[in-house]
From TrEMBL:
InterPro entries: NAD(P)-bd_dom_sf, Sc_DH/Rdtase_CS, SDR_fam. This is SDR family oxidoreductase. It comes from Spirosoma arboris. The lineage of its organism: Bacteria, Pseudomonadati, Bacteroidota, Cytophagia, Cytophagales. The keyword Oxidoreductase applies. It comes from the Bacteria. SUPFAM superfamilies: NAD(P)-binding Rossmann-fold domains (SSF51735).
Amino acid sequence: MLDTFSLSDRVAIVTGAVGLIGRNHCRALADAGAKVVVADLNETAAKDFADELGKAHLGVSLDVTNESVVKQIRDQILDRYGRIDILVNNAALNEAVENPALALELTAFENFPVAQFRASLDVNVTGVFLCSQVFGSVMAQQGKGSIINVASTYGLVGPDQSIYRNEAGEQTFYKTAAYPATKGAVVNFTRFLAAYWGQKGVRVNTLSPGGVENSQNEFFIRNYSARTVLGRMAQPDDYQGAIVFLASDASAYMSGANLVVDGGWTAM
């Protein structure tokens, strides 16, 4: 049974690969035997991390919203490896406010800039569509492959704005409409693509992770942890098992599903 988790001789591409979770996705796939294409806007970081993983791996610069670049990377992967077996659509835009003093005002729904909303749609939805179309078509021609679309608990439920209140009960920030709207779209796009390519051997599933602890304010970590069944935020490596499971033959009869790994956030 454990052999079904092996990714030996398979080729995987991870977008947004040098971020906190992306690096752990890459490590997990590499540890399971895959040859990993580390794809990120930051070309230097992508190549350095691929070198860290080992000689079998490749680091590339990838803008998931640029069709010609995505196709160039497809051709580069096929020239080097001859196939594409796994796609992890991990790249995403999570809104950030450069001036903390303006965070509360700018993230309020009434004030949130439409340009930022459109930018999130472009990366989080169009980017997933485009990478799935270009890399997934190779899998469909091969007759086998696994696409993993990374969504979020906020693609399933509305944001709990209370976790962004400090010790004094003051709202410091609002989770905007952009992230939940785009991640909800990813969940249903997964269902569409699973139904469309099922007969061609391409499985498509969603991974919906919870929040990862990453040097946030103490009040936020405490507020978030209190909302979970397990009483903590995720660690960066908490999703490695789920990624290998969805990428491998261990999940061979699973497609169109949403694997929620959130410490029980959506259970309450």
